[in-house]
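Working notes for the structural subgroup meeting. M.R. asked for a predicted model of this chain before we commit to crystallization trials. I am recording the input and output together here so anyone reviewing the notebook later can reproduce the run.

Input as submitted:
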Amino acid sequence: MRRNARTMALSPETVLAVMTAAIDGVCARLPDERRETVERVVYEVATELVSTVTDPDRLATMLRLRATARLTAATGHLMPIRSTAELPTH
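Returned structure, recorded in token form:
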């Protein structure tokens, strides 16, 4: 599953593990969100990122940040995407 001659893409198993951890993390940060909704948003974000991000840690961070931002925006609580490790909770 090569992306190009120099960079290997992430394996499906790695992506699944990162997605599962992101779902658990977002559910913990946003306990009022339904797990099914969080799963759908994390899946959508992962499909956007997986072809360009080849580092599992970077993918995990971006998944959590973007999924949390999308879910909070959908509820009307806008939150900027930040590169900090801690996200504000409600």
